[in-house]
Amino acid sequence: MHVFHIHYRNTQGTLMRILTAASRRGIELPYVQAEPAEHAHKVTLLLAVNSKQVGQLCRDWHAIVDVSDVGLGTINDFDQHIAWTLPHPTASAGVPVKAAARPASA
Predict the structure, then answer these.
(1) 3-state SS, residue 14
(2) Class of domain 2-85 (CATH, top level)
(3) 80 or 83, which is more confident?
(4) What are the residue boundaries of the structural domains of the chain, listed by start?
(5) Are 41 and 35 in contact (CB under 8 A)?
(6) 10 near 64, Cβ under 8 Å?
(7) What average pLDDT does the structure give for the chain?
């Protein structure tokens, strides 16, 4: 598995062009997270690809006018990213919910 961090300017269709580069090759997208990052935007993708596909994808993404940077990370980077971005459970997450009172049947 490879982790890609792609920084782009959020213009019409840019995110779809980024995602289409992977999907048209039949590559599954098990994890996609797009978020604002400083003055631009960033999308993080987790993909199961070989080294040839890594080169093809990076070449395609660099060819998109509004893509400013393509970074390749490791699965360890991804684990840290997930741990940092997962929402924390609410305070009531461990409290059991009482069953609603039901009227007795006649």
Answers:
(1) helix
(2) alpha beta
(3) 80
(4) 2-85
(5) yes
(6) no
(7) 81
